[in-house]
Amino acid sequence: MTKNKIDNLKIGEFEISWLNGGNFALDGGAMFGVVPKVLWEKKYPCDPNNYVPLAARPMLLRTPKNNILIETGIGNKLTDKQKKIFRVNAEWDLVNDLNSLGLAPEDIDYVVLTHYDFDHAGGVVSKDNEGHLGLTFNNALHLLQKSEWEDVLRPNIRSVNTFWPENNEILRDSSNLQLIDGDIKVCEGVELIVTGGHNRGHQIIRFHSEGEVAYHLGDLLPTHAHYNPLWIMAYDNFPLEAIEQKELFEGRARKEDAWLLFYHDPFYAACKFDQKGSVLQSIGTGVL
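Above: the chain's sequence. Below: its structure in token form.
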């Protein structure tokens, strides 16, 4: 799916645009956990080697007063070996996408990260044309849960494979990092809510303006095919918590007639669902 096929989404006075943070692929068994392939492949395609296509598609939220970037893509620092391992087939092009919208990285006021896995935080630090590393969004406050950052700095035997030092070392020593402890309001109509589930410090975002609502559930809901609360990833560190939180916020979204936004889904950028998980409205091609 090409990026120019994704329409912007209006939420009251807010406007959401999806940016190109890179495309990659992961094993379908890891993405769907204990769900048998005979079930999930009816809803989501895979190649002959069982790999499923995924996007890393940051969202630019423009409010009347702020430019907020949600997630940052895989970045431009991956080695050739890493690109091969993760089957990267479209490079990170976030800065050019911002430029096409009349913005520069310096115009971003906040960077919100649901969590700090490399595929979400890889664009926090980037290489310039001379190969030097620096903060990509050097005027932005980067909002992250304190518990997530504690785990980033002291990864365990499992998380060491996703919390890469090159993504956090420069941010760690800057004044751009704002650690938060619990739910907060970023600005009028934008709230961060701690859920845990995927990671200990995983957080989601709720947007509301002029009676309209949207949620970004992060990796609790990576694609439209994961809508069933029991369909969770093998990557979820706290699976029962992930199930509980998905059920809670999907229920809230239905009651509020809210959009659910996707970061990893190359087919849908946003959907509204009924209780059975059928798509009622969508942004994106929807072509599997």
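The chain has a mean pLDDT of 96.
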